[in-house]
Amino acid sequence: MLDLFADAEPWQEPLAPGATILRRFALSRAAALFDAMASVAAISPFRHMVTPGGHTMSVAMTNCGTLGWATDARGYVYAETDPVTDKLWPPIPPLFAALCHDAAVEAGYPDFQPDACLINRYAVGAKLSLHQDKDEPDLRAPIVSVSLGLPAIFQFGGLRRNDPLQRLMLEHGDVVVWGRESRLFYHGIQPLKPGVHPLTGEFRYNLTFRQAGMANKNKNYS
Ligand code: SIN
Ligand code: FE2
Questions:
Q1: What percentage of the chain reaches a pLDDT higher than 90?
Q2: From ligand 2's centre to the CA of 145, what distance in Å?
Q3: Would you say the CB of residue 20 lies under 6 angstroms from ligand 1?
Q4: pTM for this prediction
């Protein structure tokens, strides 16, 4: 089928104060990002973590960076070592860092310096229930979230769990950035629909870059 948008330039869709979607921003680098992700997963494999409530997450996860996000029966933590390998998480690949930087600049966060990248893998039916990201020291620093592979519906609400939700389809190469006023807005991913993507097969992947350490705390994100 003729793809009328194959050569289209990325475009931006404002989402909320401090938040924007950079449509197809990562598309031209997607294949290289996917390869780099596979190299990370060869060192620290995808695993299904267990929440403090004892629930096994449907999303499989791994990390790269000086800090990696993990959950177990004791709670949510950022740690320097992977509990599965007992080694440091692999470093953030230069290609990841470059994409994240370019996206952050485009979204109005030129000073963002992530030290943690969580990698999520969604198989059919996998979802992420509505939640806030609040395990980081600076809750105005942005989150840069890159979607690869199968599309999924992203829910984006407000500061309260019951606030009305926007529902947006995130597609291959889309990047969502949220910080400042909307940094603590509730969000989630609806159960993945079955499909096959030319690059990622039956999966959707998501990279989320965060500033999880204290090094850059108090940088001015006003
Ligand atoms: C997240 O909320 O951390 C990830 C969202 C996504 O998979 O797009
Ligand atoms: Fe999140």
A1: 89
A2: 9
A3: no
A4: 0.94
